Amino acid sequence: MRVVARYLGAVACIAALGCGTAQARDWSVIKDSGTIIAATEGAFYPFNYFEGPKLTGFEVEVAEAVAKKLGLKLEWRVVAFDAQLAAIRQDRFDFAIASHGYTAERAKSVDFANPHYCTGGQIAAHKDGPLTVQALKGKTVGVQLATSYADNAKKIGDIGELKTYKADPEVFSALKAKKIDAWISDKWVIKGTLDKNPDSGIVAGEQVFVERVSMILRKNNKELMDQLNHGLAEIMKDGTYAALSQKYFKTDASCH
Ligand code: LYS
Question: Which N-terminal stretch is annotated as signal sequence (predicted)?
Fold first, then answer.
């Protein structure tokens, strides 16, 4: 079955042309090549972002530490968040580490590794704005497209309007410009953004939901899944994870 699926994948690739970049490889191929290919978004501070030309952040450093444990070099691909699930199915990289919270819907098309952090979706608004779920009634809420924030905002039901943006920095700009009344995003992203913008007049409000965040990979790539989970367990054991968590969050972000 697996062989057939891979054969069909190869045929689809030839037909599509230019797909010599197909990369979601089996573990043995990755190991022999010495390099693993990971995707992230690069616009989700402090998890994955650019410092000048340099891609960095908690998840970038976690992935680099995991790759090191596995004896591999890591090569990055920067892919828009809303394109990542489809890109995994098109085999454009080996795995993605881009703050995907587990959802049953996503699990239909990709597999989730063990979580590398636990977190929550939270509301942010101007000081006098809607800072609780109840206060969002009739208000305009901004979220990043294709996220658990969008899903959960829809569940709130009686909000006035839901506006979607390509990435969180755009939602924050819209909130600053008062084009929206509230922003729902990750609690650490909100904290990081507000810390960097102390004069924005925006504050964090109520937490809306909790989620477990994992690397995602092509379905049924069992050996690669085992290796990534093993690498993650190793950096949790030797203190690397704890040091990174302290560096970025000043607390333990693991799902303990
Ligand atoms: N944790 C959210 C989700 O699972 C957001 C992911 C990253 C967005 N830049 O949808």
Answer: 1-24
187 lines ligand 1 (CB under 6 A): no
Name the region of 92 (left: φ>0; alpha: ψ -120 to 50; beta: rest): alpha
- Alpha carbon nearest to ligand 1 atom 7, residue: 99
Angstrom distance (rounded) from CA 224 to CA 26: 7
Element spanning 193, H or E: helix 187-196
* Nearest atom of ligand 1 to the alpha carbon of 101: 4
Q: Is the CB of 27 under 6 A from ligand 1?
A: no
Is 177 among the domain residues? yes
Q: Is there a single domain that holds both residue 223 and residue 195?
A: no
Give the mean pLDDT of the chain: 92
Please state the pTM of the whole predicted model: 0.91
* Same-domain check for residues 28 and 90: yes
Å from CA of 148 to ligand 1 middle: 6
Q: Please tell me if the CB atom of residue 117 comes closer than 6 angstroms to any atom of ligand 1.
A: no
Q: How far apart are CA 220 and CA 192, in angstroms?
A: 35
Q: Same domain, yes or no, for 102 and 149?
A: no
107 plus 165 within the same structural domain: no
* Position in ligand 1 atom list of the atom nearest CA 146: 10
Ligand 1 contacts CB of residue 165 (under 6 A) = no
Residues 7 and 112 grouped into a single domain: yes
Nearest-CA residue for ligand 1 atom 6 is: 99
**Looking at ligand 1, which atom is closest to the CA of residue 119?**
1
Contact 40, 80 (CB under 8 A): no
* Residue written as token pair 């790539």: 221
- pLDDT tens for 117-134 read 999 999 999 999 999 999
ipTM passes above 0.90: yes
Pairing state between β 73-78 and 35-40: parallel
